[in-house]
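Appendix C reproduces, verbatim, an entry submitted by the partner laboratory led by Prof. M.T., so that reviewers can inspect both the input and the predicted structure.
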Amino acid sequence: QVELVESGGGLVQAGGSLNLSCAVSGRTISTYAMAWFRQAPGKDREFVVGLSWSGGLTYDADSVKGRFAITRDNAKNTVYLQMNNVKAEDTAVYFCAADRQMNEVAWSNTYSSESTYDYWGQGTQVTVSS
């Protein structure tokens, strides 16, 4: 059974930084495309950043471009979301997700869709104070 557990959320001041972690158990992440999504109060869950299983492709939402970055450590079976220069509008619950298909062409066309991903974490709250 594959389990994803996010951590590292909390309260941060606008302009500050935060690093979220997503620890995966039950299967190596080296063959998974990974992504972070977020859901703000009263809004739908939205794609934030994604990384293909090979690490050769990354995508990020326009709203976080140049500020957020996704990385992976296959040895630790962990994915990270580095958040810099955070803004009040970054306040949300952040979710980690994994796609097990090992098909980069397909993933490159559907990376921002929730239905692409097979496994999800429970989320971690990030609150940005202005």
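The longest strand covers residues 18-25. Additional entries are available on request from the coordinating office.
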